[in-house]
Design goal:
194 residues, mainly alpha, 66% helix
């Protein structure tokens, strides 16, 4: 007994009472109102299934519901490739990693390019996560804010570090293209919703 009262007559039952029927009204304590409880459980389970289906629907509508959304999703991962080109003063992601592994570079010499490349990865992940909810009410605004912050931070760090290479310009072009893709994807999402 959980609450030590009969569910039918409401009288107190001793916590040590172990029989299955109420000593006052003789109702079965385990099965009383079982059908209503099962219906309530089924209704709650259906609500949870509907919530999961809505969530999955938002993810699908935000990421793979049309070709333009798939192109944008692939575009999000291209900065990793562009960072393999020289980014700052001939330093690329590959040369940076190899230099750190071989201990042929000093951390102080490559600290700012390392921070910049790490921010490219972290902020790009934030843009990707944000884009997964593009089909929500504030999806476009949120995507534009995250992509804008990502682009501004990247440009500011590029100006601070200097010695911009081909990889930096390709990455910047990718970020600008991402912003354009957010607008195109918003149109595709709205078309799918209507």
């Amino acid at each position: 007994m959980m609450n030590n009262t009969c569910p039918k007559c409401g009288k107190k039952i001793s916590p040590f009472y172990m029989k299955e029927n109420c000593p006052y009204c003789n109702v079965n304590l385990l099965y009383y109102n079982m059908e209503d409880n099962l219906k309530a459980d089924a209704a709650q389970a259906q609500k949870e299934v509907d919530a999961v289906n809505r969530f999955l629907g938002i993810l699908k509508a935000s990421s793979i519901a049309s070709p333009v959304l798939i192109v944008r999703l692939v575009l999000f991962f291209t900065p990793l490739a562009s960072m393999c080109l020289p980014m700052y003063n001939g330093v690329s992601l590959i040369s940076l990693i190899m230099g750190l592994i071989n201990s042929s570079v000093e951390i102080g010499d490559v600290l700012m390019p390392l921070i910049s490349m790490a921010l490219v990865v972290v902020l790009s992940l934030a843009v990707i996560l944000s884009s997964l909810f593009s089909a929500t009410k504030t999806g476009l605004l949120r995507n534009m804010i995250f992509s804008g912050i990502n682009t501004v931070v990247f440009v500011v760090l590029g100006v601070i570090i200097g010695g911009l290479g081909a990889g930096w310009f390709v990455t910047l072009a990718i970020y600008i293209l991402e912003i354009i893709m957010h607008i195109l994807c918003n149109k595709a999402i709205n078309k799918n919703v209507d």
